[in-house]
Design a protein that fits this description.
570 residues; alpha/beta; Oligo-1,6-glucosidase, domain 2; Immunoglobulin-like; 6-stranded antiparallel β-sheet; 17 helices; disordered N terminus; binds alpha-D-glucopyranose; binds calcium ion
Length: 570
């Protein structure tokens, strides 16, 4: 449709691997990116206005290859769009279908692919499918959702809990049965055992693929299929909150991660394969190891294209932890599969605060963030960025009266929810951070007058310019995009991490100091390399200096990260 092929030719060169392996994806939370019509909420027209910031083809822009938009469909917004009431339309708060088509066209023109967030575990309770399904027990769509009789009068069918609190079963007076919701009661789960429902979902995918969308981020893929027998979950501590939330006091053997799910991902792969060059990336469990994450890739060719590995995203700033998490994923990735890496998203606290010590000085925080970015953008695998990460945006501090996230409202102050990572993008030193002309839906962060795109752009020492340099480097160096990964174990303190990326005769060395104290490092020169050249550092250093033909003797400043290039033999 719409003669997209012309646009695409600018993006993919024949010689390159698929864009979703070699490119960099940038997640936009549309409510918070840019508000073009002055209602305090970000929108599609706002994203279009800012596409040049993301990639205008020059070194001045960020230079990313794809954007992933959190949900933009009609929704009553109980979970800010993750409760969809129409899978094939645009919520008026974000714009309309015409604006969406323009967004696709304008993005493709700049070589930016567009990935949509798809929530297929559940819909909104206001979706016509659910309204129909709940109208009577005889409804032809009754079985599109999960309806059960109680165990006995007033008792839910089993002990499964909602990830967002309380029982996962909601009594429906009208038809005298319970329906199932893994999240809010306004988010009833779809019944993936029903073949008609599956067909309808695949048609939704085709609807957007026909419009030129390049792929999907699939919400909570591990929730799709539930145990057919509805067996009770055994008790046992799991999860991230160590049992603070009741949900984490059960082992989720039967309500999630069912082996039967893989058949679905195979079917979805067949659907995306009907179109050239499309991809799917899945959200997987936060608390499980890398092998669970990669299980959604099948043999690497027959299920999802990519799957997030969140233990990496949750890792603290420790050399040991980073090394272990990186090993975890590389060890289990199927031979034909491809890794991806992420430090931030709309559900977790911002990495700049997570990696820092409490009350740490700003300079140090930023130094850690730059070093972490170096790792993210030099590993083997597709990097995912989250809006504002490139500015070093921090967690917002949101007064209780302005909380919007249903989770924050429910669990405050034990857990303050996800609003802190969703505050408005900081564009300029103006009122409302240049995000909007009116008070935004969430308050802007206190540091916006200094920390914003306008003030950081062009300042060579800023985190924004550092992200741009890293992204450019990844674009220039094939070894970073597709080369092999290997640890480089020279002699160094156990505060440092070093690895090489090699592609044919090309090779790069990355060295990162995790400590605040300067460290000396000596790395033996690989036999194939004639010498070393410094390409990039988080700290001011003369770039391009040749370090000679010997082993690399380096002295790294606190939290310094370096990228060196191996020179070919003369
Ligand atoms: C995913 C989304 C999250 C949402 C939940 C329910 O975890 O990332 O934002 O609340 O699913 O859809
Ligand atoms: Ca708006």
């Amino acid at each position: 449709m719409q003669g997209k092929d012309e646009d695409r030719s600018r993006v993919g060169e024949a010689e390159e691997g698929p864009w979703w392996k070699e490119g960099i994806v940038y997640q936009i939370y549309p409510r918070s990116f840019y508000d073009a019509n002055g209602d305090g909420i970000g929108d599609l027209a706002g994203i279009i206005e800012k596409l040049d910031y993301l990639n205008d083809g020059t070194a001045g822009s960020l230079g990313i290859d794809a954007i992933w938009l959190s949900p933009i469909y009609p929704s009553p917004m109980y979970d800010f769009g993750y409760d969809i009431s129409d899978y094939c339309a645009i919520d008026p708060v974000f714009g309309d279908m015409k604006t969406f088509d323009t967004l696709i066209e304008q993005a493709h023109k700049r070589g930016i692919r567009v990935i949509l967030d798809m929530v297929f575990n559940h819909s909104s309770h206001l979706h016509p499918w659910f309204i129909e399904s709940s109208s009577s027990r005889q409804s032809p769509k009754r079985d599109w959702y999960i309806w059960r009789d109680g165990r006995s009068e007033g008792r839910p069918p089993n002990n499964w809990l909602s990830a967002f609190g309380g029982s996962a079963w909601e009594w429906h007076e009208g038809t005298g049965q319970f329906y199932y919701h893994s999240f809010l009661k306004e988010q009833p789960d779809l019944n993936w055992w029903n073949p008609d429902l599956r067909g309808a979902v695949y048609d939704v995918m085709r609807f957007w693929l026909d419009r030129g969308v390049d792929g999907f981020r699939l919400d909570v893929v591990h929730f799709y299929v539930k145990d057919r027998l509805f067996r009770d979950n055994p008790r046992g501590m799991t999860g991230l909150t160590k049992g603070i939330l009741p949900y984490d006091r059960y082992r989720h053997l039967y309500d999630r991660d069912r082996p039967e799910g893989h058949e679905i991902f195979k079917e979805m792969r067949t659907v995306t394969n009907e179109y050239p060059d499309r991809m799917m990336v899945g959200e997987t469990p936060y608390e499980h190891g890398a092998s669970t994450a990669v299980s959604y890739l099948g043999d690497g060719t027959d299920e999802l294209h990519l799957a997030f590995y969140f233990k990496f995203l949750l890792a603290r700033w420790r050399r040991r932890t980073y090394r272990a998490r990186i090993d975890d994923l590389y060890r289990v990735i199927p031979e034909k599969g491809w890794p991806c890496w992420v430090l931030n998203n709309h559900d977790v606290p911002r990495s700049i605060d997570r990696l820092a010590r409490p009350f740490e000085a700003e300079g140090r925080r930023e130094a850690r963030a730059k070093a972490a970015a170096t790792i993210l953008l030099t590993l083997k695998g597709t990097p995912f960025l989250y809006y504002g990460e490139e500015l070093g945006m921090r967690n917002g501090s949101i007064p209780r009266s302005r909380l919007r996230d249903p989770l924050g409202k429910r669990y405050w102050p034990v857990y303050k929810g996800r609003d802190p990572a969703r505050t408005p993008m900081q564009w300029g030193p103006r009122e409302h951070a240049g995000f909007s002309t009116v008070e935004p839906w969430l308050p802007v962060n206190a540091d916006y007058r200094r920390r914003n795109v306008e003030c950081l752009a062009g300042d060579e020492t800023s985190i924004l310019e550092y992200y741009k340099m890293l992204i450019r480097l990844r674009r220039e160096e094939r070894a970073l995009r597709r080369g092999d990964f290997e640890w480089a174990d020279g002699s160094m303190s156990d505060c440092c991490l070093a690895y090489t990326r090699t592609y044919g005769s090309e090779g790069l060395l990355v060295v990162v100091n995790f400590s605040a104290v300067p460290q000396a490092v000596r790395i033996p020169r690989p036999a194939a390399w004639g010498g070393w050249r410094l390409l990039l550092s988080t700290h001011p250093r003369p770039r391009g200096i040749v370090l000679g033909a010997e082993d690399a003797h380096l002295r790294l400043e606190g939290f310094e990260a370096l990228v060196l290039k191996g020179e070919g033999r003369p």
